[in-house]
Design goal:
Helices cover about 40% and strands about 20% of the residues. It is of the alpha/beta class. The protein has a single domain, classed as YqgF/RNase H-like domain (Nucleotidyltransferase, domain 5, 2-Layer Sandwich). Strand 2 and strand 3 (about 30-40) form a beta hairpin. Helix 1 (about 45-55) crosses helix 2 (about 75-90) and helix 3 packs across helix 4. It is globular, with a radius of gyration of 14 Å. It starts with 8 loop residues before the first strand and ends in a 6-residue tail after the last strand.
Length: about 160
């Protein structure tokens, strides 16, 4: 674990209607769901408040790409949301590939016996857990921070 930076992170799965938030322990062993934040004008403020509450050292925002690694309709939305977070928070914000996190989240919920309808309220949190866990695993195996940093714009 030589290259792993200690500290809690928040994993953020940006959706059109909801934003899933997950966190991890300071050693990055386990990602756990935190909250589903309604997507509105208060979303960024709520997430920065959660980051403070959990003493996060970094925000990891999922970047939805298609399976070929190309941008999708949601990619720019996630980039814009990450930029708004970077502007609102003093914490580093990184965009991480979350190609299969929502698919994995739905599959995990289905295999646990939940219907698509009953899963709607938590699927975003589960997707955030999946993307955060993937990012933690990448950092541990490569010794490098996952994804790409979002520039901190001066406010």
């Amino acid at each position: 674990m030589s290259g792993f930076r200690r500290g809690r992170r928040l994993g953020i799965d940006v959706g059109k209607a909801r934003v899933g938030v997950a966190t991890c322990d300071p050693d990055g062993l386990l990602a756990t769901p935190v909250e589903t934040v309604p997507r509105n004008d208060d979303s960024v403020a709520r997430i920065t408040a959660l980051a403070e509450e959990y003493s996060a050292v970094e925000l990891l925002v999922g970047l939805p790409m298609n399976l070929r690694g190309e941008d999708t309709a949601s990619t720019q939305d996630a980039r814009d949301f990450a930029a708004a977070l970077a502007a609102a928070s003093a914490l580093p914000v990184r965009l991480v590939d979350e190609r299969l996190s929502t698919v994995s989240a739905h599959a995990a919920l289905r295999s646990s016996g939940r219907s698509q309808r009953s899963s709607r309220s938590i699927v975003d949190q589960v997707a955030a857990v999946v993307l955060l866990q993937q990012a933690l695993d990448v950092e541990k195996s490569t010794g490098r921070p996952p994804g790409t940093p979002v520039p901190q714009e001066p406010a």
